[in-house]
Specification:
The protein is α+β, with helices and mostly antiparallel strands. 20% of the residues are buried. It has two domains: 87 residues, Class II Histocompatibility Antigen, M Beta Chain, Chain B, domain 1 (Roll), CATH 3.10.320.10; 110 residues, Immunoglobulins (Immunoglobulin-like). The protein contains two helices and 13 strands; from the N terminus they run ββββααβββββββββ. One of its GO terms (cellular component) is MHC class II protein complex.
């Protein structure tokens, strides 16, 4: 029976469709009639035998050395790496969904914390701002998953207890939250959580006040 030389590669995707960039997540394999000989990583031209020792290990080592001297091998790896980078967009077409907002108060003695939850939005780009009696008291902006660009800056209503993180939910949408600490003496004041998102023509706003709760 004839022998067949096969080259296969795969990319690992997270639940939100993003490319997992960890060791072993973008592998390439050269097999001879389904027997793996050479294994490597798409992000580098280096590859080695899949097995150590034995006839297959020896053959894999010879083939790996030959591929390392062939410029076409590196070109093929780079081509397959580009396909990996384009794969998430093909598997999960970009969604465009507006966020939903909700403010949840939490008391601990005289201290009051207000957390604004945003969820169900896509893409991940979102800016969340707090307003105190209509005046901006700080903002937090995120332009990628887990990458904080700014932070809420407490002014007349105290310091920030927690900064927002944009996290994938698993269905192609994202969630985030922003928390401020409200000191005593603001019982008659109102606080607005405002979200700016590419899917919105106008900012989305929810209001909280002790008289409204």
């Amino acid at each position: 029976a004839p022998f067949v030389l096969q080259v296969a590669s795969f990319c690992s995707l997270a639940t939100d469709g993003s490319l997992v960039a960890t060791n072993g997540s973008q592998e390439v394999e050269v097999a001879l009639s389904r027997f793996p000989l050479v294994c490597g990583d798409l992000r580098g031209p280096r590859a080695g035998p899949c097995q150590q020792g034995g006839p297959l290990g020896t053959l894999g080592d010879i083939l790996a050395r030959a591929l390392a001297q062939d410029s076409r091998w590196g070109q093929r790896l780079r081509q397959r790496q580009r396909l990996c980078q384009e794969l998430p967009k093909r598997v999960w077409p970009p969604l465009r969904a507006p966020p939903r907002l909700r403010i949840v108060p939490e008391r601990s003695g005289p201290a009051l914390a207000l957390t604004c939850y945003a969820w169900g939005f896509s893409p991940a780009d979102i800016t969340m701002r707090w307003l105190h009696n209509g005046d901006i008291i700080g903002d937090i902006a995120e332009d990628s998953v887990g990458d904080t660009v700014g932070g809420i800056v407490g002014d007349t209503v105290g310091d920030t207890s927690r900064q927002s993180r944009v996290l994938p939910v698993g269905d192609g949408t994202f969630r985030a939250q922003a928390t401020i600490q409200v000191p005593p003496g603001t019982s008659g004041d109102t606080f607005d959580c405002v979200a700016l998102h590419p899917s919105l023509e106008e900012p989305l706003r929810v209001t909280w006040g002790e008289a409204l709760s």
